[in-house]
Specification:
The chain folds into two domains: 241 residues, Aspartate Aminotransferase, domain 2, CATH 3.40.640.10; 101 residues, Aspartate Aminotransferase, domain 1 (Alpha-Beta Complex). The protein is built from ten helices and twelve strands. The chain has a seven-stranded mixed sheet with strand order 1-9-8-7-4-2-3, with helices on both faces. Helix 1 packs antiparallel against helix 7, helix 3 runs parallel beside helix 4 and helix 8 packs parallel to helix 10. The two termini are 22 Å apart. The chain binds pyridoxal-5'-phosphate. Pyridoxal-5'-phosphate binds next to helix 3.
């Protein structure tokens, strides 16, 4: 049997809402108000300027962000931010930036920052196999750090911070790639938030960066233009040819979040229901399904688990594939199983997966 689009539990790129896919399929041929394919519309057109401006406003409205934040749409993925952030925030400081090493993705950000300057890893979960997140007592933040960097949701391991961490007198920088716009996030507590689109809010090719005015104002002169937030802020993300299609898709997703879902609190409520369904299957399976993450650090976006043996995990994936599910294999770095239930994954589809998992266990 072929995989079914509504049963795509991939860790990324993630599924998109069906109504967005329908609008995109029309826009590929012709955007009604333009008479042109979205793929052939100039990034210098008034139409595109209005798209960017509406999307900036939608993101501000969803997060309750003031105009002292720039909302930027950049290329290079989250990975380019791993470098752009220290290039902009580290020069001129003697004390190290503080990084948390809570899993695979925060582990990718650290060596990139080290290339640019001094970094202190404040806490690492490597010893414990990245199965839990630190408590406040384990985090001796220093007041003189140029900034703190952490990942709000570790996509690979399925760990999610349930609180904002750090000191209020040190800049907070956060990679929210895999839980951005999945819930309210106290955005104004952060000096810089970044999130690529391809997990929760769109296709690969665009990364949203929310950055406070003063961070840009204080960043060093002389950076390569493309890697300088100033270039993108002063041009409303039109410094060079931006990914018009990807940005348009994120706009459609933001409209869906506002008009169909009713904002981030409603989105959060739905996401919590979805996660609770799957965690209940794990927790009532008499140890057949073993959740990877410590209970209090469990992610609402990525449910990671193991079966009693790798052979059984293979059997699970084959049976799931035959039933139309896809994307349930764990990340190649750690294996196991992972169900990613980003915003666009419906409650009905998660119910189907929960039923499938319950039946699979009974058969074994
Ligand atoms: C997937 C992921 C990344 C990698 O992003 P790219 O856009 O591929 O560079 C970075 N951070 C987190 C938290 C992720 O989930």
């Amino acid at each position: 049997m072929k995989p079914k689009n509504d049963l795509n539990f991939s860790g990324g790129p993630g599924a998109l809402p069906e109504c967005v896919l329908t609008q995109l399929s029309e826009a590929l041929i012709e955007v009604p108000e333009m008479g042109l394919s979205v793929l052939g519309i100039s990034h210098r057109s008034d139409w595109f300027a209005a798209i960017v401006s509406e999307l900036e406003n939608n993101i501000r409205a969803l997060l309750g962000l003031g105009t002292h934040y720039h909302v930027l749409f950049l290329q290079g993925g989250a990975t380019q931010q791993f470098s752009m952030i220290p290039m902009s925030l580290l020069p001129g400081h003697t004390s190290p930036a503080e990084y948390l090493h809570t899993g695979y993705w925060s582990g990718k950000a650290i060596p990139e920052a080290q290339r640019q300057g001094s970094v202190r890893v404040l806490w690492s979960g490597a010893q414990s196999g990245f199965s839990s997140l630190p408590s406040d007592a384990e985090l001796p933040f220093s007041a003189d750090a140029p900034y703190l960097h952490y990942v709000s949701n570790e996509t690979v391991e399925g760990l999610q911070f349930q609180r904002v961490i750090g000191r209020n007198d040190v800049l907070r920088v956060c990679d929210m790639s895999s839980d951005f716009l999945s819930k309210p996030c106290e955005a104004e507590q952060f000096s810089l938030i970044y999130a690529h689109a391809q997990k929760n809010i769109g296709p690969a090719g665009v990364t949203v960066v929310l950055v406070r005015d003063e961070v840009i104002a204080n960043s060093p002169a002389g950076l390569p233009g493309f890697l300088d937030y100033r270039s993108h802020a002063s041009t409303h993300s039109n410094f060079n040819t931006p990914p018009v299609f990807a940005i348009y898709t994120v706009l459609l997703v933001s409209r869906w979040l506002i008009n169909e879902i009713g904002g981030l609190e409603s989105m959060d409520r739905i996401n919590r229901q979805k996660a609770a369904l799957l965690y209940r299957v794990l927790d009532t399976s008499d140890g057949f399904y073993r959740g990877r993450a410590r209970l209090e650090d469990r992610s609402l976006m990525n449910i990671t688990f193991n079966l009693p043996s790798p052979e059984m995990e293979q059997g699970f994936l084959l049976a799931a594939h035959a039933a139309g599910f896809s994307g349930l294999g764990g990340h190649r770095s750690i294996g196991g199983l992972r169900a990613s239930i980003y915003n666009a994954m419906t409650l009905a589809a998660v119910e189907k997966l929960a039923d499938f998992m319950t039946h699979f266990r009974r058969k074994k």
